[in-house]
Each structure stands twice: as C-alpha cells, then as structure tokens.
Design brief:
Blueprint: E1 2-6, E2 16-20, E3 30-40, H1 42-49, E4 65-72, E5 84-88, E6 97-101, E7 105-107, H2 114-118, H3 121-134, E8 142-145, H4 151-162, E9 166-171, H5 174-183, E10 188-191, H6 196-203, E11 207-212, H7 217-222, E12 226-234, H8 248-253, E13 256-259, H9 262-268, H10 270-285, E14 293-298, H11 302-310, E15 317-321
Parallel strand pairs: 8-9, 8-11, 9-10, 11-12, 12-13, 14-15
Antiparallel strand pairs: 1-2, 3-4, 3-6, 3-15, 4-5, 5-7
Helix pairs in contact: 3-4, 3-10, 9-10
C-alpha cells in the first residue's frame, strides 16, 4: 500500500513523503479498513515538526481519523466487508489501508459521504468535551468561538448552536466569517484581534464561555471580555505563542481557565469517553451537526493540504483521499 511517512522532523515538511509500505495485518478486535478519506488536523502538522505532545518514534504515518470500507473484521463484530465505517486512529490514517480498533469505529450515517464522516470525530469530540463536559454550556449563554473558520472552531460554532447558546464567531478573515455566517445561524461575527469592546457590548458585560484554539494575543484579549463566572477554554495555540496570565486576573474577574484535551479526557475517563463518542455520532445521525469539508486532496498531493493547514487557508476541514 501507499502511505505518507514522516522519516525526519522538520519545519518545512522535507522529512515527509509518500512511500510503498507493507499492508497492515489486523489483530483480533481490529478492523482492516480501506481508507477513502482521512481528515487533516492541526496536530498532524505539529507532529511532522516534533512540536506536539504526542511524539511517535520515526518513521511514522500521521493521521488521526479516517473513513472507509471494512476489508476484514471479526465474525462477531457486527460488521462485514464492504460496510462503511469511521474510525479514530491517533496515527496512521494517511494511508490506503489501516488496521483500526473496532471499539473506536462507528457506522457512517447514510447521509454522510466518506470525507464528511472523516471530518467529525476529532473536531466535534473536542467541541463536545469543551462545551458539554467542561464548560457545561446552558441554553441562552453567550459563547465566543475564536478561530471559528478552522476545523475545531467551526465544530464548536455548530455544536454551541445545537446546545441553544448565543454564538459570536471570530476570525482574522472577514471574508471567511461571511461564509460561516451564511451557513450557520450566528448572533454576531467579529474580526480578531480587536474584539474586546464589541464582545462586551453585544453580551452586556462579557461572554459566559470563550473557546480559544488560537492562543497568544487572542487569549490575552479574551481575558478582558469574559463575564464573572465565565469559562475560558484553552484548546490550542495555532497562533504559535503560548500565552501566560497573572493569577490575579482570573481571581479578580472570577473566571476559570480550563484546558481541553478530548483524547486525554477519554483515556482518563474511558466510560465518559465512550459516551462522548456515542453522543457526537447520535447528533450526526440526527443531522443536528453539519461538518463542512473545504477541500479534498489525493494522497499524492498531501503537501498542498499540509501547506494549507499551516496557513489556516480553509473554512472547516481539509481531507486527504488515498
């Protein structure tokens, strides 16, 4: 099979390339899946640089989630060759074949194609853990989502709407925000940075919840427009700067700063992790969440996808189709 391999860590993707690799051999409790679509996530890019908390030994195939057709499965698994499944993998999705854990797989709802299905897991699980498990968002609360045109940000916008929250989406690009507003019912859009006073005016004092996958200056400004008792959710640092804060600020303003790691949450609390996965796929099956696939790339053009991710040049998800 062909697979994208990371043989050396670098900032310019020079250590990556598509190679011929032996087909994987599944173990009991696994599916062998022919990959039809694999979603690109920001951690995949960071792993090519050695800049993510998960640092797999070289060489490795990146890719955290994929969708495809079952090739082999245990006879008692409830699945058969040809069934359409989506599966979280942590590694290995950017390949033509993947051996994935059956417990991490779900049947794909009929109304979703492979690329749409592959775009749900990581983004929406992160949004679910952030908004439901950690922030406990209530209907009517004000939720600000930064980086709202990226994969996780757009998932948070979509899920917050489903939960009945009032949503303000921010991005550096006004044009991208127009596309988001045209596809998702928002209460407001704001370009960032420079959103502090507008958030306070719109919400009547401050946001109840702020979802921040950007970090840096965006985090700093967020601490100035969050309500007393608010929850500031740290999802990532796509800006490149990890922010710091004097502890007197959350003390005086009475807000919480909460770290969001959906995968680690599931590893720490396996039962709740399974419930989260079931909840997300129930929402997808009921058409209550709508992933947006921005562009699709063949495996041979993987570099274009990674370059677009590095430049945040997308609205929603980028997908590689082996």
């Amino acid at each position: 099979m062909k697979a994208l391999m990371v043989s050396a860590l670098s900032t310019d993707l020079s250590g990556c390339g598509v190679e011929e690799r032996p087909d994987p051999v599944r173990r009991a409790g696994q599916f062998l899946v022919r990959v039809r679509a694999a979603s690109l996530n920001y951690p995949d890019l960071l792993m090519t640089r050695g800049a993510y908390q998960l640092k797999p030994p070289l060489p490795f195939t990146p890719g955290m989630e994929m969708a495809g057709e079952v090739v082999e499965a245990d006879s008692d698994s409830g699945f058969a060759p040809g069934d359409r499944v989506v599966c979280g993998t942590r590694l290995g999705a950017f390949a033509e074949l993947v051996a994935c854990e059956a417990r991490a797989a779900r049947a794909i709802p009929d109304h979703l194609d492979f690329a749409e299905a592959a775009s749900i897991g990581t983004a929406y699980l992160t949004a679910y853990v952030a908004l439901v498990r950690l922030a406990r968002v209530e209907p009517g609360e004000w939720v600000v989502v930064h980086g709202a045109t990226g994969g996780v940000g757009l998932a948070a916008v979509d899920l917050a709407r489903t939960l009945g929250a009032r949503v303000i989406a921010t991005s550096r690009s006004a044009d991208k925000l127009t596309v988001v507003a045209d596809n998702y019912a928002l209460d407001a859009t704001l370009t960032a940075p420079g959103f502090r006073e507008a958030v306070k005016d719109i919400t009547g004092g401050g946001a109840d919840v702020i979802v921040d996958p950007v970090g840096g200056d965006i985090f700093d400004e967020s601490t100035r427009c969050i309500a007393f008792g608010g929850r500031l959710l740290v999802v990532g640092f796509t800006s490149g700067r990890i922010a710091s804060i004097p502890t007197n600020i959350p003390l005086i303003k009475g807000f919480s700063i909460i770290g969001v790691r959906a995968g680690e949450y599931a590893r720490q609390f396996p039962d709740r992790g399974a419930e989260n996965l079931d909840a997300v796929w129930a929402l997808a099956a009921d058409r209550r969440i709508r992933p947006r696939v921005d562009r699709r790339y063949p495996l041979a053009d993987w570099r274009s996808a990674f370059v677009a991710m590095a430049a945040s040049d997308m609205i929603g998800k980028l997908v590689i189709e082996p």
